[in-house]
Amino acid sequence: MPGHPPEREPATGEGVTAELRAIDERAMRLERVDRRQCAALVADDMPTMRLLLAQSLREAGFDNVVQAADGAAALAQLERHGCELILADWNMPGVDGLELLGRVRAHPRHGDVIFIMVTAENADDRVLQAIGHGLDDYLTKPVSPEKLSRRLELILARRRAAARAARLEAMGLPERAMDEYLMAARNNPQARWPQFGLGELLLRHGRLDEARQCYQRLLRQSPQAAAAMVGLGRVALQGGDAASAQSLFQWAREANPAYGGAVDALTELHLAQGRPEQAAEVLAQADDMPGGLGAHRLARQARLFHDLGQARQADQALQRALAQDPALADGPEGLLAARCGLALGRPAKAVQALRRLARQTDQPRLKIEAWLMLAEAHLSQGRPEQAEEVFARMAQADAWPAGQRPFALHRLHAVAAAAYLRQGRPQAAAELVAVSRLMAPDDAENLAWLDHLTSQLDARPADAPAALASAEEYGRRGLELAAQGLHDQALAQYRLGLAVEPEAGRLHFNVAKLRLRAGQNEAAAESLALARRHGLAQGDWELLERLAELLLSLDDALAARKILLDILELAPGRPTAQALLDQI
């Protein structure tokens, strides 16, 4: 800004961060769109309109134009071609333009594409509401190449200025970032976006008086500018005047009921002030407006209902959100759906959703939460064997992205102990507390948590093993107990051994035999698969031969043959393996 002290711009490569790289990647995408060197996507359910829009794009300079007849096909084309510009009709069957917008913005790789909605002569309120909240702009039909080029020029100018300002701010040069918006305002005196960008930047840096002046200028230009009222409300809130902020947010909502920013601001204010009921009421009132709530606000409403103990209302809001944007089921909303299902007596559906989420997500924290909730769901339904399998799977390094567990094993045992305790299984909890304590006697934070759990147990720590035995020792004890017909006690010893060494293939094999004896064939198959995997990884040919022999006794010659061929390929000349193979 004028008068600010000179600042040194870091040299190339200095202070390069992930944030800066992301900003630079966005800037490069804008250049490709400007040079017409990117793929463009047209999504419209009317074949004639698709052809006309594609022709307008080609005449505007885009040679690579792909088409889709609906939102679902558009997502597939986006994934396949990496399009960087989308023209989408807002009113399509199935996944409409607004739902497509939400799913594109949530995409991990393509969320920053330029997105222009195509509407009829009078744009729907929901389309207008989306501008500034994911939608770059809209065009009314018919769309000529000239109209499209002019609109793209404005969008690119806005995005470029925002990218330059974001880069300067990330480099620690906020004054230079502010200059970018001031220059944009001088070059575009009728445009409001430079003032909004400047106001948000000033607010982030605590320059409340200047931010207030910025939003007041916007209101003088347009007295009903709801976004400017919300900006003034945020200035008041950051200055400690929550009452004025609330009045301004309400004023903004009354001035433009379709403006979602006012709804969000009021909701956040009530939550920050400890008034979740009022926050839920704000969203309910917005839902009564034409068009209702979008997927993400419905998901927020569902979370509020859940936190207020209103499981049925939470489930109803969430199902509407998922109907609008099914991709939400792959995130935290998938966990919320499972919680609602469990609360409403639909455990089977909840378990199915949790299994899917734990298997598909690459987000470690989300995967942890899904697995833990799945284990507790099994315990609550009287299925401890399935819960044990979940915890065993969590302990496997190959169950995690890049083969790296995001936690220490002793912490997993502590968390599992808490789950068993909550579900009324104190003996299993006591065993896991003992294992966790003895595996990491120097982890003070974990020990404090274990002390808390121990205080809730009927069994005291003295009932637990005095020392942490080796996996082999637990295996030996388990075999002795199994020989006496004490299968439950044997299984407990094997479980303790696997807690110490999750990749002990022989213990998995012993667990599988107990599962088979109990008629738990599905759980046995999982344990056998783990025994095979770890036996191969560790070169335990004797274990693999015993495994093949067991499979032959179960009339599964095909699986046995595959294991024996693997053995003989990796360890040629083993007579036992060859003799078993000759029997098949």
TrEMBL record:
4-aspartylphosphate modifications at: 89
Keywords of the record: Phosphoprotein, TPR repeat
GO process terms (BP): phosphorelay signal transduction system
InterPro entries: Bact_response_regulator (IPR050595), CheY-like_superfamily (IPR011006), Sig_transdc_resp-reg_receiver (IPR001789), TPR-like_helical_dom_sf (IPR011990), TPR_rpt (IPR019734)
Residue ranges of TPR repeats: 192-225
The UniProt record lists the keyword Phosphoprotein: yes
SMART domains (alphabetical): REC, TPR
Pfam families: Response_reg, TPR_16
Domain Response regulatory: 39-156
Protein's recorded name: Response regulator receiver protein
Native source species: Desulfarculus baarsii (strain ATCC 33931 / DSM 2075 / LMG 7858 / VKM B-1802 / 2st14)
